[in-house]
Amino acid sequence: MLLADDSADRQRTLRRHLMVRLAGQVAEMAFTIQQFRATGHQVHWSRWRLRWIRNLFLRSEVDTDFTYAALFAWGICRDASELRRTFDQLWRDTEGLLRRPAYWSQIELLSAALSVRPVMTGEEAFAVIRPLAP
Prior knowledge:
The protein is mainly alpha-helical and 134 residues long. The protein has one domain (10-132). Helices cover 72% and strands 0% of the residues. It contains 6 helices and no strands. Helix 4 (80-98) crosses helix 5. The longest helix is centred in the N-terminal third of the chain and has 31 residues, at 8-38. The chain is elongated. The relative contact order is 0.17.
């Protein structure tokens, strides 16, 4: 959690970590939807996105790290419309990445998301991504 007396470096590190976690959660959910579609089921992206955002704010079906990341995203956005734009951009980036058949694992998706939205150095990203490896 960010505190008022935290150093600027610590706040930057926490922000970057939480944004990577948020991107990872989005990528994981989008990957699951892609796999669901691959089995022949129809998935409406807008409906899933609205459900995802609703669950986010209701703190339902969302893990703790994702909730913290989302609450942090709310903290750095000026208003609800900016927060929604941030989420929508993450979805667009992730959906674009999923069109590339080479990306299959969560690690690859996270790495690709970082290349689209660079939020930290490669060394910092590896330290965050490594524990998430399957």
